[in-house]
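ok, trying the design again with the full structure, not the truncated one.
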């Protein structure tokens, strides 16, 4: 049975991970660069450790007629950022994306107070992490091109952790090689813009999905991921986050959970059934304890393949509707056409 532990003051102490598992709140000192993951002749190789650390923050905004996804990703050897819009009624998708050499992106050390940013010609994306004040502010601006409308906005994800319990997990790739993630589904306020159209965000109706991750990924890795959220007809916010990756003991160490009205429920291991030859076909996803059982019906996807010599990132992020259930028996909650994402990502980096 997975339990939630009190969060230590620091993730790394004396070069060692202070604990693995699920925690009450995000770490205030996320000092991963101090992790003793590489040694030679008894000496720590801090530079080698920093090179292996992959970091990102991803926000997804779900509106009845629109979806916006955006990320700042620092892989150290390169940086990637994108902003995309999906028209849930018309079916069209527009994406602005940028790639740059390592060091171009700034990633916050923690979510309590810090900044993330990426800028390029005609493109700017910034995240102000203010968890201690109960929100994260996102500002985006991607200029119009010959083929794409401008996309911009300024919104706040209202992550009040006294009201909406976050998912905070540290999982082991090996005894001292951690994967840290913080995920949440919360109301959102502010506005987004596509061309001349302004989309107002209503916190009683609209949801923001947060995915923060910092991890010392091995050279070869993969993951399958699910995340969705929305309000029931009764006005209750429900959401889920499931992942199947290379963590060997995924019954004990995983980021698998669902939320009902702000309360988090940890689950067993996640299993994804779908055709890799037909990513946009139906997906069937459940947990080994039966607490989550959903079907996913893609409506489109964001995909990108980067290959430079031995480096590979093969990324598929279909988006669409989820149907099924969260919980069991009298506590079960129906999932009926809630919007969200799945992901298949194969990496060598």
């Amino acid at each position: 049975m997975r339990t939630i532990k009190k969060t230590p003051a620091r993730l790394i102490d004396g070069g060692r991970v202070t604990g693995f598992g699920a925690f009450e709140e995000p770490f205030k000192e996320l000092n991963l660069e101090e992790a003793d993951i590489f040694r030679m002749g008894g000496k720590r190789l801090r530079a080698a450790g920093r090179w292996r650390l992959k970091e990102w923050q991803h926000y997804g905004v779900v509106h009845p007629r629109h979806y916006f996804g955006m990320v700042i990703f620092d892989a150290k050897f390169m940086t990637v950022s994108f902003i995309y819009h999906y028209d849930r009624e018309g079916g069209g998708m527009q994406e602005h994306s940028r790639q740059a050499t390592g060091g171009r992106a700034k990633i916050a050390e923690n979510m309590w107070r810090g900044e993330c940013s990426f800028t390029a010609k005609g493109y700017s994306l910034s995240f102000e992490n203010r968890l201690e004040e109960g929100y994260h502010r996102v500002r985006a601006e991607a200029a119009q091109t010959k083929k794409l409308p401008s996309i911009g906005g300024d919104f706040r994800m209202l992550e009040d952790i006294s009201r909406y319990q976050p998912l905070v997990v540290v999982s082991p790739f090996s005894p001292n090689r951690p994967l840290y993630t913080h995920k949440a589904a919360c109301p959102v306020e502010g506005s987004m813009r596509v061309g001349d159209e302004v989309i107002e965000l209503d916190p009683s109706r609209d949801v923001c999905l947060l995915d923060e991750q910092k991890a010392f990924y091995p050279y070869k890795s993969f993951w399958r991921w699910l995340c969705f959220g929305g309000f029931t007809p009764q006005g209750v916010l429900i959401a889920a986050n499931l992942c199947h990756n290379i963590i060997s003991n995924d019954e004990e160490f995983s980021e698998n959970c669902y939320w009902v009205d702000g309360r988090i429920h940890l689950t067993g291991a996640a299993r994804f059934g779908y055709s890799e030859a037909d990513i946009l076909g139906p997906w069937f996803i459940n947990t080994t304890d039966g607490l989550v059982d959903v079907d996913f019906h893609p409506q489109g996807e964001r995909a990108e393949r980067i290959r430079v010599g031995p480096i590979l990132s093969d990324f598929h992020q279909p988006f669409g509707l989820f149907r099924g259930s969260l919980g069991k028996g009298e506590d079960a909650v129906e999932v009926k056409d809630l919007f969200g994402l799945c992901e298949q990502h194969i990496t060598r980096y």
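Keeping the full-length input from now on. The two ends are 34 Å apart (CA to CA).
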